[in-house]
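re the bet — no i am not wrong, look at it urself. input seq straight from the record:
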Amino acid sequence: MSEQDDSKREFDIRWADNAELKEPSARARMLAARWKENPPEAVPFRGEPEGARPRRSSWIRSSWISTAVVLGCVAGIILLLGYVQFRAPYQP
């Protein structure tokens, strides 16, 4: 075979997109067959777990607490490094 034959055999995506019948994937066929006998129940997108209540106020409170903890840790590290440098003997 020559290079010219290979270029003729190159897949033409426009030809494939214009196909009249497109076969579904194996997974789509499997799910369609399964759901024909046993349809799935409707599930909301990211639904709340049963018995859960809105936690907006606790979310706001926890975000402030976590911010305070992070800032406290940063301040503690700065103070610790300053103390260690202050205690180290001076070496010119």
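see?? The chain has one domain: 3-87. told u. also The chain has a mean pLDDT of 78. so pay up
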